[in-house]
Specification:
By secondary structure, the chain is of the alpha/beta class. It folds into 2 domains: about 1-235 and about 335-370 and about 375-385, TIM Barrel; about 410-570, Nonspecific Lipid-transfer Protein, Chain A (2-Layer Sandwich), CATH 3.30.1050. About 40% of the residues lie in helices and about 15% in strands. The chain is built from 20 helices and 16 strands. The chain has helices at about 20-35, 60-70, 90-100, 115-125, 130-145, 180-190, 200-215, 240-265, 275-285, 320-335, 350-360, 380-385, 415-420, 425-450, 450-455, 460-475, 530-540, 545-550, 560-565, 565-570, and strands at about 1-5, 40-45, 75-80, 105-110, 175-180, 195, 230-240, 305, 310-315, 315-320, 335-340, 485-495, 500-505, 510-515, 525-530, 555-560. The protein has an 8-stranded parallel β-barrel with strand order 1-2-3-4-5-6-7-11, surrounded by 7 helices. Strands 14-13-12-15-16 form a 5-stranded mixed sheet. Strands 8-9 form a two-stranded antiparallel ribbon. Strand 6, helix 7 and strand 7 (about 230-240) form a beta-alpha-beta unit. The model is unreliable at about 405-440 (pLDDT under 50).
Amino acid sequence: MRFSILHELQLPGPAARGAEQQLLQEALEQVELADRLGYHAVWIPERHFQEERSGASAPAVFLAAAAARTNTIRLGYGPVPLALHGTNPTFVVESACSLDLVSGGRVALAAGESVAGAELGAFGVARADQRARWRAALGVAARMMVETPFAGGDGMPAARQVVPRPVQAPHPPLWLGGGKRATARVAAEGGLGALLLTPTDPEPVRDWVDEYYETLTECVPLGFAVHASFALALPMMVHADEAEALARGLDGAHFDAYARGYYESFGRHRPGRTSVWEEFEARRDDVGLARSAIVASGEPLSVRVLRGGLGSLRGAIGTPEQVRELVARYDDAGVDELVLHVASGGVAHHDVLAALELFAAEVMPAFAGSPRPSRFTGADARRALERREARQVVGVDDAFGADDDGAAPAAAADTEVETMGITDRSKFVAFRRDMEARGEKAFQAFVRRSDDARLERTVGSGAGLRVIFATMERQFVPGRAGGFTGDIQYNLRAADGSVRSWTVSIGGEPLRARARAGAAGGEPKLTITLAVADFIRIAGRDLDPVQAVMTGRMELAGDFAVALKLGEMFGQPAAF
């Protein structure tokens, strides 16, 4: 079993001048000590606007400083809420690769979902959209670190070489972080390590680990390597005297749990005015964090405690003997890595250092034997990688120029589209660049707030349809075509009764998609007939294609097997 540490960079209560700098310096000293003592990794989640709970808004900066002061400890960058970065993870990838270089190949990158209104509201992310967005972003991130050059997709332009490249090949280990059993299952489906940040007793965790490894054998990796590992976070404070361990560590562990619930479940925060610490002290008994329910009794440890009608949290807070027994239960459950949160909620710096030293001296040696055989073999990994799509390749003629520029300001985007004439080439180019630069989000917003007439007049012009079909060409995923070659014909009905036909041809070596205006030269494998506006709404994810078929708004003729995988072929979730 491996042992790591977690840092939220918490600073409860009003912060005096210089307190934040002192906190960071002390955290770096703790990481230095953990490195010398043989701890496996330090994890720093990325969080924003969560006063008192976390100052870790720029974890890569902290980890870069830690890299300069350490030698072997791995640097856990995340969980990073990739949905907040949209489907463009370039800056995260560049930071992770740079960190991997300066640390000599010690980085692990974890994605995650944010459930805090402080972040979702600030960055304009809908809760329902998160999973699709982080999955897309993490898949793109892996490709950025592997493809030479990056082949584009998901709103990202092709023909860009992401620099620098990481030390670790094909890329640093990829994880998914979260708090629920479902996190482990979703991680396994994507071939990712599972990093669970909500403390849970060992006995239910056994089933979680079993499900994770069973699911992992059927995974379709999001990255170009499978990282098989199950990690669980746990509050920790150890001392020879149980009562002293409780006095040093319990309030900090409880504040961390309260602050997590405050920002993710029940809090109503007034920035710069609300004292989360004062609310914690006043309400802790009401939310299952009663101090009086935890007593020094010498009993075996558990994460959740119920005593005297009050619930509370404990975890690995006790004597070395008590903590060893608890860790052995996690080891028996199959947990690969325990992530210890010691510096939580204002625990004194010297107490953190002492706990790290005592744990390393009296707990870690009991688990330092030969590693248990892996439940995910090299053969499992090879089969999993055969199921993922191949690396995408950029055409030899794809390039960008020194005179390329970005899009018009967002406030002018609608006007730009509205006034674009069918024959106005300069405005068409500006609109195309706006869509490419802003990606799907801007296009989807425009579609949602437009009626059918407006969509047909603007995006439904010849120029606008060229943009959509050109995007389909770029997003085509050869590995998901299932061997299909042939023509797909779109018959788009205009409001005036005319029909505009477009054909997407799949073929060639390497396999590519080519779109052109006009009907197929021969018999198409699949013909799709629908209104121009409905076609645009499906492209903008404002109309579900299944619903469109069921309601008669879209008609299919030909090979229905092609229709079933159409979405996946063009880089989207399966449509049917």
